[in-house]
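Let us work through a complete example step by step.
Step 1: write down the sequence.
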Amino acid sequence: MAADLLEKLRQMLLDMHHSGRLSDIEPGLYEDAREYVEKLKADYYSLENPLESRAGSLLIEEIGSVTETVQEIFSIRTRQILDLAFQQIEGQYFDKGEAKKMLPAERMMYGQIVDAIEGCREVLVHGEEYSFNGSGAAAVDRIDLIDDPPAASESGVPAAPAPRPILSPYALVHIRSDMESFMGVDGRVYGLKQGDIVTLPESNADVLCEHDIALNIRLNK
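Step 2: predict the structure and record it as tokens.
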């Protein structure tokens, strides 16, 4: 994996911002980025004391930078594909050359977006029957799972949500001093500061408590 992958991603992102149009990207871009992040994680875990070393901090920063840059590339391309879909649906000028720059997964997304919008228009505007074939069921399910606002108590103050149980491999800790970001054994990057109360993987929590950086709040003990 080329060491300049991050710079390559950033330049690609800059070009996308300047052009404002869907551009060609290498078919293996996302896979290369995933492999690179996995390599960085392996390098991080191979350090003797990753939480305390400068090398560990640098690796965490690079992991975050690569991940954020790839996500921004995905977000920009998705918005551009949405624009192309609306252009086709509204009968506007449609650049087929630009459409050919989509990756296979993006083409599939594009087709589903066009079908869904056209189907919704048939139902709402023309009063026609249209089967969405369950393609939007997952999205509707996710909407249904969004928590309702907490019910107000008799005093008119919203009732506090019920506390969620803390699962076994995690510990609730109180952070006693500021610290640099680090990656937990669960693969998540944690940026903590003094006064935070958070759940951390137990092994990471134990290390922080041993160094007097955190205090374990043993609610279940």
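Step 3: interpret the result. Confidence is low (pLDDT under 50) at residues 134-146, 161-168.
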